[in-house]
Amino acid sequence: MRRILLVVAVLLVGVLGVASLATVATAAGPDAPSPSSLPVASVLLQPVAGAVDVSPAEPATVAVPDGTLDGVTLTGPDGTAVAGAVADDGRSWSTTADLAYDTTYTWAGTATGADGAPLPVAGSFTTAAPADVVRGVLNIGDDRTVGVAAPIEIQFDAHVEDRAAVERALSVETSVPVEGSWGWLPDENGGSRVHWRPAEYWPAGTRVTVTADLYGVPYGDGAYGRADVTSTFGIGRAQIVRADVNSHRMLVIRDGVQVADYPASYGLSGDPDRTTRSGIHVVSERFTDKRMVSERYGYDLVEKWAVRISNNGEFIHANPASASAQGSSNVTHGCVNLSTADAQAYYDTALYGDPVEVTGTDVPLASRDGDIWDWTLSYDQWRGLSAL
């Protein structure tokens, strides 16, 4: 009997011992990682250490996917720190300001891996050194109000070789959906130019924001963008001039309603150089007094209330000298002549970007006639001028 009891006691102690060991193992956590099983942390730099020809517009970042950043600085050669911010999770840092061209930047700081080991943040990179820095200028400033045919234009002060790179940096946002496209026109004033026009006239009242993130963009041939440019502006009322030369009248349609009907005289049709061009012109400038000179036709005059509608010399303006022909015949050198009172009345309503639709002549408006010939092309033709 005592042997039986002894065996039972030994078995019981063995069971209790196993139970005790199981309890200890559970408390320690069988799945808890040991330091040796933790992921090895690493510091990821972008641009990588030693990189050259880096775009200064691209953000510089440092990340520690399996750890946290303790402190990071990125400094230029004079020791000035570049502005930056740490992400909410503490695992990455990124610049919040553009870098400079042709400058070497150096990283400094530390990070801590998940295993508690310290990691250095170190290295340097150098930004691109442009052969030329090209400026781009928008034609419509902030808070302006323009007409429904106004193109958005960016004029560059030098030739742009890589037009696709530039176009990818451009965007147009509108308060209502508007389809449109960028199109590259022949270089002018020593530099390239790109226009954006809608497929049809702008909807009246549209708010437009143009963003050209040009700083740091490589233009080709070693040239880069000088600075970003932006503008937010509005489209005004829908005012359209309808000018049929055979009617000898000039109609003004505003928001679908005819608001004026002026007797007019257009270009003399017997001379192709004097014929008013047919097609959609666009108001670009206004002058209370404009000197008009032609050696070929022998005049040097100052005309009142002149509204430029093309760069080939076509204006809508007052001309008392042609008063007897206004409303009955075409005798001008290509301009639209009105009485002084009518010319001033129209002048007071005109906006940059208003369309002037001339019809009835056999000489079409074309690219040779100046800056804004965007609307002489169909929309499909216009999209063909895009670099993308």
TrEMBL record:
<comment type="pathway">
    <text>Cell wall biogenesis; peptidoglycan biosynthesis.</text>
</comment>
<dbReference type="InterPro" id="IPR041280">
    <property type="entry name" value="Big_10"/>
</dbReference>
<feature type="active site" description="Nucleophile">
    <location>
        <position position="335"/>
    </location>
</feature>
<protein>
    <submittedName>
        <fullName>L,D-transpeptidase</fullName>
    </submittedName>
</protein>
<dbReference type="GO" id="GO:0071972">
    <property type="term" value="F:peptidoglycan L,D-transpeptidase activity"/>
</dbReference>
<dbReference type="GO" id="GO:0005576">
    <property type="term" value="C:extracellular region"/>
</dbReference>
<keyword id="KW-0573">Peptidoglycan synthesis</keyword>
<dbReference type="GO" id="GO:0018104">
    <property type="term" value="P:peptidoglycan-protein cross-linking"/>
</dbReference>
<dbReference type="GO" id="GO:0071555">
    <property type="term" value="P:cell wall organization"/>
</dbReference>
<feature type="active site" description="Proton donor/acceptor">
    <location>
        <position position="317"/>
    </location>
</feature>
<dbReference type="GO" id="GO:0008360">
    <property type="term" value="P:regulation of cell shape"/>
</dbReference>
<keyword id="KW-0133">Cell shape</keyword>
<feature type="domain" description="L,D-TPase catalytic">
    <location>
        <begin position="239"/>
        <end position="359"/>
    </location>
</feature>
<dbReference type="InterPro" id="IPR050979">
    <property type="entry name" value="LD-transpeptidase"/>
</dbReference>
<dbReference type="GO" id="GO:0016746">
    <property type="term" value="F:acyltransferase activity"/>
</dbReference>
<dbReference type="InterPro" id="IPR038063">
    <property type="entry name" value="Transpep_catalytic_dom"/>
</dbReference>
<feature type="signal peptide">
    <location>
        <begin position="1"/>
        <end position="27"/>
    </location>
</feature>
<dbReference type="InterPro" id="IPR005490">
    <property type="entry name" value="LD_TPept_cat_dom"/>
</dbReference>
<dbReference type="Pfam" id="PF17964">
    <property type="entry name" value="Big_10"/>
</dbReference>
<keyword id="KW-0732">Signal</keyword>
<dbReference type="Pfam" id="PF03734">
    <property type="entry name" value="YkuD"/>
</dbReference>
<keyword id="KW-0961">Cell wall biogenesis/degradation</keyword>
<keyword id="KW-0808">Transferase</keyword>
<keyword id="KW-0012">Acyltransferase</keyword>
